[in-house]
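Obj.: predict assembly geometry.
Materials: sequence records (below).
Method: joint structure prediction, all chains together.
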Amino acid sequence: MPMTSQRRTTLIAAASLVLCAAASILALRRVDELRPRATLEDVLYISSPKVVKRASLGYDGLMACIYWTRAVQYFGQRFHNRSLSYNELAPLLEMTTQLDPHLIVAYQFGASFLAPQPPFGAGQPERAIRLMEFGIQNNPQEWHLYYDLGFVYYMELKDYARAADAFERGSHVGTHPFLRIMAARMAQHAGEFETARTLWMATYQSSQDKLVQQNAVEHLRALKVDEDVTNLRAAVTRFGQGAGRVPNSMSELAAVEKWPGIPADPDGNPYTMDHDGHILLKHPEDFSFATQGLPPGFKPIAKFHDQ
Amino acid sequence: MTARVIHIASNTFREAVRDRVLYNLIAFALLLSGSAILVGQISIEIERLVVINLGLTAVSLFGIVIAIFIGIGLVSKEIEKRTLYTVLSRPVRRWEFIVGKFFGLAGTLVVNTFFMAIGVFGALLYVAHKLTSSDAMILIALYFIVLEFLIICALSLLFSSFSTPLLSAVFAFSLFVIGSFAEDLRGFAGMAHGLTRWLATGAAYAVPNFSAFNVINLVAHGQAPSGQLILQNTLYALFYAGMALSGAVLIFERRNLK
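Observations (raw structure tokens):
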């Protein structure tokens, strides 16, 4: 049966549509290869929150959600690529919170994105503090914000007086007893492992978010390592004062210290010792946030374990 | 009189349904369900906020587009198809025709909003697994959106009563944008002096204040608008829509239809 003119046109048009669509995709991929990625990523097309607020015609809540998602994606992508620069993170977070000053999650996560040093964060604790203060100004009844502010002062800046002040301010909000306890602890126990452990435990317990909890678990594991290695170093020093040399092995040190066995890290792997008496982790790559027990030149990588 | 208005209103509603206006509900459902699933994967802890913000923004914008694009054609289409002469040759007054058209379009938008509201609550239930008492505040935001539609419908009819569909669309959409900046206009008036102050104040009161109806972000955070705001917004919307509708009737009564 001969093909009608209409049918022929339909077939040609359909084939042309498919071919052109495929060709345009291929061409666009080629264009993407030619353009440098950085110029595509590092751009905040509109940097003024006021302009975005006006342009949103009153739908600024939705714009805030979009900017928050952009901030999460921006951080996630750079974190994944182990980037050392997070230039647009703070502006994205500031834009988000100015569009919706009551978006608490943007302050809480935003501070934890901004404050830690690279590769775990943007290394901008001052911007994190500014963000938290803006959050407190707009949500004075949110005790979490005072806690997070104190946390940044304590963990990232080691500014215990300001951390105590933030906890103290938070203790007047609602009836959360934890902040009053932390404010009191700061006076006498700032800088101690136990205080840091209490803070991370509180972070773990007060959040429902799996990522936050995993992060807290990793920090608690690292704290345990730091504390163990510090204590083991003290034992090595004691041994040296008595014997006039470093121990030959961990077994020798354990015998002198009368330990039941060789101390082990949170994963159950015994700590090791090099010939200079330095205490080392068997698998340092499993403790992303540990600052002690690492071999010289070791660069930590973010790794999360089951809780 | 009432029966004739109701008859015209129901015909307008039927016509809108025949024009497949309610097909926008499919796009709305796809948008909402897609975003509810996607946002959970690409963002952190804002699924509920996105569903409310996106859902209510879409209800508002879809409704405004429908109100403008149907409203502007309500009179001109009847003239173009010459059906208006058939209607007016019967014992139907011109004002009844305009008021009937207004209620028909408003009814279409209320029905549309009702189905979209079901979609919003459904998506909310999907992401949050339960509805809380604070979610009832969404109903207030939806009510304010409907009030917004009443004003837009009346304005579209007003422009439609004397202008071409294209110009009516431009006028109505411009007023929607300007109305969203009404509070800035009032702020500008407060800073100006002399005649400029009077003109700016006059303009600020003449344009519809849509920003007063936007409580989407407030209810997304579970906060309730005050009872006074509900009352005053209701009165404002009724008076403003009444004003625009009266203008439309005045113009249409005097329009030469020959």
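Conclusions so far: The mean pLDDT of chain B is 87.
To do: check interface contacts against the pulldown list.
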